[in-house]
Amino acid sequence: QVQLVESGGGLVQAGGSLRLSCAASGTIFRLDMGWYRQAPGKQRDLVAAITSGGSINLVDSVKGRFTLSRDGNKNTVYLQMNSLKPEDTAVYYCNANIRGTNYWGKGTLVTVSS
Fold it and tell me: Model confidence over 65-84: pLDDT tens digits?
């Protein structure tokens, strides 16, 4: 059973930075991993993803501000968020996919004040 543990959320002023971390355990396989976010009253949307081979995808709204990286060969990913905007406020969820099965973290709240 894959388990995901997230950390790094919090309250920050607009223009500030936060770094989210997600560590996956319970598998020997290198995972496709990513971050999604869900704002109040909205659906959960992809923010950034990295494949097991290292290909990275960022949605347009965060390009140039967010960076996704992986810790070497580990199943640990980091989402560096710079120039945060109030519209980035959401619960951020770590996601991992293995053989078509999705796993989710419990989520970490990011609040950006104006």
Answer: 999 999 987 899 999 999 99
Strand 108-113 and strand 10-13: the pairing is parallel
What DSSP designation does 31 have? P
Q: How many CB atoms lie within 10 A of CB 21?
A: 15
Mean pLDDT of the 8-16 span: 97
pLDDT > 90? residue 37: yes
Task: Tell me the β-bridge partners of 49.
Answer: 34, 57
Measured on CA atoms in the order 90, 50, 65, 11, is the torsion positive or negative? positive
What is the distance between the alpha carbons of residues 9 and 5, in angstroms, rounded to a whole number? 12
Exposure string of 45-63, with b = 16+ CB inside 10 Å and e = fewer, is eebbbbeeeeeeebeeebe
Q: Taking residues 45-55, what's their average pLDDT? A: 95
The gap between the terminal CA atoms of the chain, to the nearest Å, is 40
DSSP-derived letter for residue 59 is -
